[in-house]
Amino acid sequence: MSHMGLYLPNHYEGYLLMVILRNVMCEVQVLKALVLGEEERGQSQYQVMCFVTKFQKGDFITADAMAKLRQKNPSTIRSPEEDRGKENYTMTGWVLLDRAGPISRHIAPLCSEAQDSTYARDVDLKAWAELPAWICTDSPQDYFGRGEKPNR
């Protein structure tokens, strides 16, 4: 099994990576980033953004599996079997946090500071809509939007 990683340094061109959360049941990955503002340009000190994406369960090694590998041979240096390079995503939809619970109950609390800046890809929304009803009880179209953001 190969490990698919998100290769972002902790601090990169004004972005400070905060959290990567994976909900394996709904195949949801949430990246929460802190975007540092430029005070000399009159920007606020920071902005929080969240990016919600779908992942394949077989594309990463769980923390439990890694812990077992470390126990078995703690001095071994582990590296991915293959380098998949960088992944670029175009986020065309946004997440309505107050309605995101059926996709993952972790989205709203994790991204509470990103009410108007939590994004997803259309292809991911369609994939979540096809998951069995017992995993995600309502249609993602009811919880995610396209086009104009709602006025808050």
Automatic annotation (TrEMBL):
The Out at first protein BRICHOS-like domain, residue ranges: 25-128
Xref: Pfam families: OAF_N (PF14941)
Transmembrane segments: none
PANTHER family cross-referenced by the UniProt entry: OUT AT FIRST, OUT AT FIRST PROTEIN HOMOLOG
UniProt name for this protein: Out at first protein
Gene this protein is translated from: 6036372
